[in-house]
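Supplementary Text 2. Reproducibility record for the structural model of the 200-residue chain.

All settings were left at their defaults, and a single model was retained for analysis rather than an ensemble. We include the record here because the model underlies the residue-level annotations in Supplementary Table 4.
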Amino acid sequence: MLGLPKSTELSQPLPKTRIFAKFDLRSSQKDRFDEDISRMSIVNVISPRTIPALPVGENVESIYVLDVLLKNQDYDSRNIQLLSKLIPQKMLFLLRFEDKVQLAIFHTKLLTGEWGPEPEIILAGLDLDAVWEGIVKMVGTIEVEEGNTLEEQIHYDEERAKLLKRIEDLEVKSRAEKQTRRRLEMFEELQELKRQYGES
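Retained model, structure tokens:
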């Protein structure tokens, strides 16, 4: 699975009923979970026990791969965020719907890849901290710029995405605006936002 070494493979079902029993979920959370998720199973464990040449890092002792069979492709991402908060492990989610898969991972926020065929994960790094960072970068398609940490880059990319969204929304509004004075104000605001985006 995911091109990971055979020694990491596991088949440990994670019943939804166990999640519901262990954690005191509200009925609305259970319903939402049930609507999206058919079944779950831990399919890989990346750790020094399964790959002896790979030592633990300062922050990461093991990485679990959770295979999640979805009932629909347009799932509620809050369910995956909830799982990542309830299970206190570093977790890579392999989301499946019909013949397509999507990878998801939580690192300061939920990052998701594109839907497509099952990708191959390359375990690169001297310890599990480095391997985890490599997987996060791959899933989130993150290019860490020189001088930034991974966390800083995620925050920076998120702020740029928000700024771009504001620019796009304002451009749509300004085209629909009838009042000349208001359109001029919007134009000036747009120029300022574009300047910020160019400098960021």
